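in:
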């Protein structure tokens, strides 16, 4: 799988994560404020939750990459990615 395709998948992951599927911008800011105000135990819980979300999405990305490769659509997705990147 090309580095360009991996970068694009990570870009999409970031957009989904920050853009709203998991948290919207306001939720993210609230989460960070809560983390800053939290005591040791709650801070650890918030950290653990964030790491769990990271692992979840890394697994989603890995599954998407594997499925795309198995279905032979990774090259087609790479073309679509090139088109999307030109729009940025």
């Amino acid at each position: 799988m090309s580095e360009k395709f991996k970068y694009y998948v990570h870009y999409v992951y970031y957009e989904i994560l920050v853009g709203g599927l998991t948290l919207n911008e306001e939720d993210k800011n609230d989460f960070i404020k809560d983390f800053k105000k939290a005591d040791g135990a709650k801070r650890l819980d918030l950290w653990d939750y964030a790491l769990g979300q990271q692992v979840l999405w890394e697994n989603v990305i890995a599954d998407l990459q594997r499925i795309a490769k198995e279905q032979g659509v990774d090259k087609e997705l790479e073309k679509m990615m090139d088109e999307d990147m030109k729009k940025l």
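note: The chain has four helices and no strands.
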